From TrEMBL:
Belongs to the NADH:flavin oxidoreductase/NADH oxidase family. It comes from Panicum hallii var. hallii. Keywords: Fatty acid biosynthesis, Fatty acid metabolism, Flavoprotein, FMN, Lipid biosynthesis, Lipid metabolism, NADP, Oxidoreductase, Oxylipin biosynthesis. It holds the Pfam family Oxidored_FMN. The lineage of its organism: Eukaryota, Viridiplantae, Streptophyta, Embryophyta, Tracheophyta. Residues 8-340 form the NADH:flavin oxidoreductase/NADH oxidase N-terminal domain. This is NADH:flavin oxidoreductase/NADH oxidase N-terminal domain-containing protein. Its cofactor is FMN. GO terms for molecular function: FMN binding; oxidoreductase activity. SUPFAM superfamilies: FMN-linked oxidoreductases. GO terms for biological process: jasmonic acid biosynthetic process; oxylipin biosynthetic process. The keyword NADP applies. Coiled coil: none annotated.
Amino acid sequence: MEAKAIPLLTPYTMGRFDLSHRVVHAPLTRSRCYNNLPGEHVALYYSQRASKAGLLIAEATGVSQTAQGYPNAPGIWTKEQVEAWKQVVDAVHRKGGVFFCQIWHVGRASTYDYQPNGQAPVSCTDKQIMPQVLKDGTVEEFSTPRRLREDEIPQIVSDFQLAARNCMEAGFDGVEIHCAFGYLIEQFMKDSVNDRTDKYGGNMENRCRFALEVIQAAINEMGADRVGVRLSPYSNCLDCWDSDPDALGLYMIDAMNKLGILYCSMVEPEVIKVDGKVQIPYKLLHFRKDFAGTFIVAGGYNREEGNKAVSEGYTDLVAYGKWFLANPDLPKRFELNAPLNKYDRSTFYTPDPVVGYTDYPFLDLSSV
Ligand SMILES: Cc1cc2nc3c(=O)[nH]c(=O)nc-3n(C[C@H](O)[C@H](O)[C@H](O)COP(=O)(O)O)c2cc1C
């Protein structure tokens, strides 16, 4: 098979980062960081997927003890966690990769078991998430949250700031603020959840205030040219949706432009199949047009749709989730148009440090 310069494999300059291609590792929770610490197997996972000047975004990483809500998810609020991340970052950098850490707080998507002293998870509201039926049929339940008092919110903002500082200390090249999928920041942003009457609730400006304070805090630590933001205005995960997602997305983009944010990563609301082939109907085009920085899309992309989206100027970069977790050498496989390993959903979140994690095979280059 002969290598061709396909659009996904062309270089792209993202601010201070000269990327050699446009195939990004999407943030992927893998539930393998025992005691919230990324171990050697995590370093191996990311280094397998690192390529020279390729962008990887690490899985959602908690900014504090109250930020946690899922088994074996990493954190970056203690010295021990920072030390653990250093070996992961070093492993990626040794391969020449550019590595961002996604920082999050789950808010009400948690249970008493994860919270300090078994206290209630915190949120902008005291409304509980309804039990969620997952793809495998299991039901996920969450505890009743406690509404944060207005005077407690600066502490959460400063937890994000400390996490950003810790990311820099661990050697990450930047952070991605997780403002998507129904977690704490989105709980504040969207009007199906936010029922506050103070300056953090009500109109769009108030609902986005917390997000923008967090983003500003990260900027204060590392500069806007190292801060990316993930948004999913159209999603309704965890009972979190907005009555006007277009206005919400555009409001955030306008604010992020003023702050000079490095990149905006957005999740496609719709993927369709025509004659059995995946098609992305470019529902994010108006956001892409308005955003001044680097635009990253994710959700349902394959090689063909990724190439098309880049060549038509719909996006700068494409983040791949499921295909990247199953194909450590995804950019190489795209370059060679080689077959892909299938992903195994049953091991997405299992705790084994090898199976379904670092044991997906590389392409046998002698056979291509
Ligand atoms: C196993 C798994 C874990 C995920 N974890 C995260 C996460 O930690 N943070 C996040 O923003 N998105 C997460 N996502 C969403 C992905 O980043 C991505 O947007 C999604 O998988 C769609 O892209 P794909 O069709 O290429 O897989 C996760 C998805 C999967 C499948």
